[in-house]
Amino acid sequence: MNAEFVAMLRPFLKYADHQEITERSRLRDLGLDSMREIELLFAVEDTFGVTIPDERLVDATFETGGNLWAVVEALLAAGHGGRS
Prior knowledge:
This protein is an all-alpha fold. It has three helices and no strands. It has helices spanning 3-9, 34-48, 65-77. 19% of the residues are buried.
């Protein structure tokens, strides 16, 4: 996970406060609820210029910061993103 991703993620985690967000951080435990999850999805897609496919829009993707980052990173590596 890069610093830009962590900075983008933090506002959606109402219990994160100033604690470190790592690949193992459980997003639900840090306050990500279903409404924030949708907002986070849009923020990720806008920030990184990717579209997360429907088959990746599952609970496991949003379970940890690392899981979500892995999806974004795979899309970027496959050439399915980047800023416009």
